[in-house]
Amino acid sequence: MTTEIIKPLSTFIAAEILRQPSREIAADEKLISSGLIDSFSLMDLALFVEDTFGVQIDDTELNADTFDTLNALAELIQARL
After folding, report:
1. Global pTM?
2. Which among 26, 60, 27, 30 is positioned nearest to 46, based on CA atoms?
């Protein structure tokens, strides 16, 4: 199930945030702590997650603990589905 979650997340980040549609983002690649995405992009990603997967993201979860890797984010989404 996590593959079905990680793939659209990776595609969205590569195409819409990084503007590099052909880029592959590894499931364990650091997103926030590496500086790959910033706080503005984090909001876009949270809205994408809510719209795509129908889960609610609390403002307190918009941090590196929850959003730093696709694996961590997929676990959060999976727990809420």
Report:
1. 0.92
2. 60
